Amino acid sequence: MPNPPTPTPAGPTGLRGRLVVWVRELLQFGLVGALAFVLDAGLFNLLQHGPLGFLSGHPNTANVLSATVATVFSWVANRLWTYRGRTQDNAAREALLFAFANVGGVLITQFCLFFTHEVLGLTSPLADNVAAYVVGFALGTAFRFVFYHYIVFTGTADQPQSPGAVAVAVVGGAPATRRTPQQGPTATPRP
Hints:
Layout: H1 14-49, H2 59-82, H3 91-119, H4 125-152, E1 165-166, E2 177-178
Antiparallel strand pairs: 1-2
Helix pairs in contact: 1-2, 1-4, 2-3, 3-4
């Protein structure tokens, strides 16, 4: 009598599997962050130093506006791609925590701009960009990554709902799918 097939685990197991998931999450977070950075920095410079420059001389206001637009983009991209297997059932709570994390990141950037202008007396476009998009961005990004990973996106990947379900919902993998009866089962029921 042949042995029954072994059930497939719902997610990666072992240290190597967790490390692969963590690296994939970090890379996806980095890509979303890079796109948000381009959006944030481009909009900031357009508002502050661009042809219209209607927020010229108001770096903090320009930064808050550009960061808000980038934050909305980042939440949608992270929810739908980076952390799609770990999103919370309560999207409003998740969005609130995400906004809180980003307010923390913006406050870090705001402090860097304030320090550069008020303490160091540096007000050039180069000083604004170094303060906001080198120092502030690096510190804010580290804060956000830790906050997202441990506080915001803490849901669990969907477990298979039947013996015919296939679990491939790892961070960055394909969403969980169900096999049709014609394709045959891939796992046996768990006791």
